[in-house]
Amino acid sequence: MLSSISTPAVITCKAAVAWGAGEALVMEEVEVSPPQPMEIRIKVVATSLCRSDVTAWLSQAHIRIFPRIFGHEASGIVESVGQGVTEFEPGDHVLTLFTGECMKCKHCTSNKSNMCQVLGLERQGLMHSDHKTRFSIKGKPIFHYCAVSSFSEYTVVHSGCAVKISSTAPLDRICLLSCGVAAGLGAAWKVADISEGSTVAIFGLGTVGLSVAQGAKLRGASRIIGIDINPEKSEKAKAFGVTDFLNSSECKEPIQQVIKRITDGGADYSFECIGDTDMITTALQSCCDGWGMTVTLGVPKVKPVITAHYAFFLTGRTLRGSLFGGWKPKSDIPTLVDMYLKKEIQIDELITHDLPFEDVNKAFDLMREGNCLRCVIHMPK
Ligand SMILES: [Zn+2]
Ligand SMILES: [Zn+2]
C-alpha cells in the first residue's frame, strides 16, 4: 500500500481548539504531524460529546493544559501508520480508546484488570510515548485530551489506543461504544456481573446510567430502579429497562430509605453514574447487607474524597470502582460492535442530536443545559 511505504507528511486540517477553560471552541487550521513509531493517524468520521469532555473543559484545575483539543468518544478510518505498526493499515475502521491496551504489562496480561500501565488514562495532554503533542498551530503546540483529541478532522493516537472494528458498522452510531455505552454495559456485566432476578438501583440516567439499565435488563434483573432529578428522563428510562423511576428531588424521605423499603432492605446492586461523591455514599446506603455492591462510574466534578461509615463494609457491602466498564478495550470492544450489528444492544436511541462539526459548540450548550443524552458530531467527509 502506497502510504505504508512512503513517509506520511504533515496534514493541515480543521480542529476545534479550546484556548482556555470554559471558553467557546474556535475552529482553527492545525498541523497534524505524521504518526510516530507505533502510532496511527486517523481521519475522524464521527465523535460524540461525553460529559467528561465538558467537565475537563470547564475545570480550572488544568488551565496549564491549554490550548487543547477535546473529544475522546470517536470513530474513524486509518489514514497512515507509523513505523512498526503491523496491526492496522490505511482504510481500517477504528474506534479510539481513551484508555489503551498494550497487551504486555502486568495489568494487560491479568484477567482481573483493564488498567494498562503503559497506555492508561493520559492526564497531561500529551502522547504516551514521547510526552509531546502531535498538533500545532504555526509551531505552537496544542495539547491533547486523553491522548485521543477527536474534535479534529485528523488525529494521531497510539496503535494501542484504537481498536479495529467491522467495516459494516455505522461509524456515526457505534462511536458511542468508544466510551459511554461500553462503560455502562461493562459495569453491569463485567464489574457487577448482575445475576438474573436481582434488584438494581441506578443513580443518574444519562447515557452511562441508561446503558447500565440496558445491561441489567439483558441480564434479567427483576427490578431496575432509576433515580434522576429530571422528570423528562422517565419515559426514555423505561425504554432502556427501568421499571421504577424515582425523582429524587420530589421524594419526601431520603432516597435510600425509599429504595430500601421497596426492595426489602436494599438493592442487590447500585450504580453511581453522576460523578458526585456524596451520591456514592447514598448508593452504598441503598444496597443490601451481605452482598450489596455499589459500582462507581461517574467522574467527580468536585470533592473527590468519599465518606462512608465502616459499618457498610462490616455488614458485607462492597464498593467497586470501574473505568470503561472493566472492558479490555482492544480485546472486548469488537464483540460489542458485533452485538450492535445483530441488534442485541441499543445505541441509536441514546443519540438525541446530530450536528455538523462547525456546530460543535452547540453540543457543549446542549449537554450543559441537560437537554441531551448524546450529540454526535459529524466530521466533514
Ligand atoms: Zn467519555
Ligand atoms: Zn498494558
UniProtKB/TrEMBL annotation:
Keywords: Metal-binding, NAD, Oxidoreductase, Zinc. The keyword Zinc applies. InterPro entries: ADH-like_C, ADH-like_N, ADH_Zn_CS, ER, GroES-like_sf, NAD(P)-bd_dom_sf. Its cofactor is Zn(2+). Residues 20-377 form the Enoyl reductase (ER) domain. Belongs to the zinc-containing alcohol dehydrogenase family. PANTHER family: ALCOHOL DEHYDROGENASE (PTHR43880), ALCOHOL DEHYDROGENASE-LIKE 6 (PTHR43880:SF5). This is Alcohol dehydrogenase-like 6.
